[in-house]
Batch of 3 targets.
Target 1
Amino acid sequence: MLVKKSFLEKKIIAEKTIPIGSLYFFENFLVAEFNEGVVVNFESFNDATTLVKEFYGNKPFGFISNRVNSYAIDLYDAPLFMKEFTNLEAYATVIYNAINNKLFELEKRFFKFNKENFTDLNLAVNWVETCIDNN
């Protein structure tokens, strides 16, 4: 389910479109919906990095990847992301098919963030907010 067609739509504080997709900022977390076929790596995520740093600064935040499209993540860049986002408290992935579930399991081996997988956007938001509240 797209963020703009979900219960979250009225809670969006800021919405930004970057070359690799759309970012929706909320008080303590953001939701990313990456474009079909893009490759998300440290370089292509640069615009997002700037926006995240501007919006959250050093305060703890959560990230939700709403995988409504198929895209690739460069797993070799995982250490760079982990070094850059030391204040990332929770990383949720919302998947909509079995292939993305297998990809999640692979990504989890490379990204050492507090990371969970969900099949429902609402459950992902609840988990991320709980992680932030428990910080």
Target 2
Amino acid sequence: MLYELHYRGFAGVDDRWEWNPGLISLRAQIEEAFEQALREAAGPVPSVEPSSSEVAQALFALAASEAGPSVSKFIQRKANAAQAREFLILKSIYQLKEADPHTWAIPKLQGRAKAAMVEIQADEYGNGHLPRMHSELFRQTMRGMGLRDDFGAYIDRIPAVTLAAVNMISFFGMHRRHRGAITGHLALYEMTSSIPQAAYARGFRRLGYGSAVTDYFDEHVEADAVHEQIAGRDLAGGLAEDEPELVPGILFGAQAAAAVDALAGAQYLDAWEAGSSALLAGAGAGAGAVA
């Protein structure tokens, strides 16, 4: 909620609370503990030469090493319609504002890294065409599945690990000292996106849904295949060459992204494999939609 004051805010909440000193102080205290937890989850970072090729190679190796249960394979092969709707609800807390948290990094970057970030984000925002904005495509997917498409509609059903994954991006993006981490985070996201997105699309088609639902995933298959090279070599790699001291931060951001997303995915799959819901219990906005 403290971060959301810097995005859309809340109905009935004065916008001046965004920079309230008391709330900023509280957020700083929470962030200190949050960063410690992220570093523990990420583990030690390897020593990598500050060159575009070496940093990109390290990031691609991390992306390739991701193992364990796969949410995308579950959606592709096994998920029923109720589980597919839950999956969308879980994703909605980020996807309905997709790109916004990473965009905080743009004014904190310079040169080649900044140009690469802008190129990636321009695609995320549909290159100026509202219907092609990725967040708008996700809204279309939500509607196609009979779900509400207003941001935060299902917040009371979202588990803590999912919120942590989203808060991590805002934390990295809003702090200049973490400009390395936010680039590493985005690079890993782009490197691990294209193949899973294709699996999600196949899963929703298996369940009988058409392009109104699958357009979002199909768009990412092509876009992210291009973005992964830009993110690895020009964004993260370019930043490493311009500011070599940020290489550990780049790798920390990528490893934290992998670790937290793995925790979230394992929690979802454990619930679904047990025949349970991956959402929090309660009668909130999502109760009827996912029954």
Target 3
Amino acid sequence: MALQLPTRKKYAVKDVMNDLKKIGPTPSQLSEIGSKLIYYEWSCCENLLGDDHPVTVNLSDTLQFMEHGYEELLVTGELWRIKDTPQGAINDFLRGRPKEFLEYTLDRSADYIRGLLESVADERRDEIKQYKKMESAVKREIKESPKDPEVWNKLRLLLWIVGKYSEASEAFKTAKSLGWSKETSAIVAL
């Protein structure tokens, strides 16, 4: 069943973030929203409001989170507990942000934003199918090298991407118990 995003006449920052929580984006999808939407909005705000305005500052933080921070949280093992879902990571990022920022109406048209969000939702569905096919291959790797923390971490990332957060958490615990650390990890980006 296809994800139904609400139809809106305009989008505030919180509307985009709430729709993203419904999509459950991976770092690549969040980065796409950052580069195709948030960067534009940040540029407009920097010119109109100044670079020290709270909306501009928070859009800059949002862009950094979308293009780098979210992926870094996942790759470095910060998102490993069952509750560390895309929705949870977005909620953590938004926590404490000013109302003025969250309710700021974006400049791009509602049609553009909705089209971009729908495109990202479609990519997400396709990505889940693709990664589910890879799951059995990684599980075979684990049977061949059950004491390899890197393989267990690879499984954790794959399970997280397909939305199996409980299994991903268990795979991460195993990787850690076998000696995995972010300092020595072979995986530095997705």
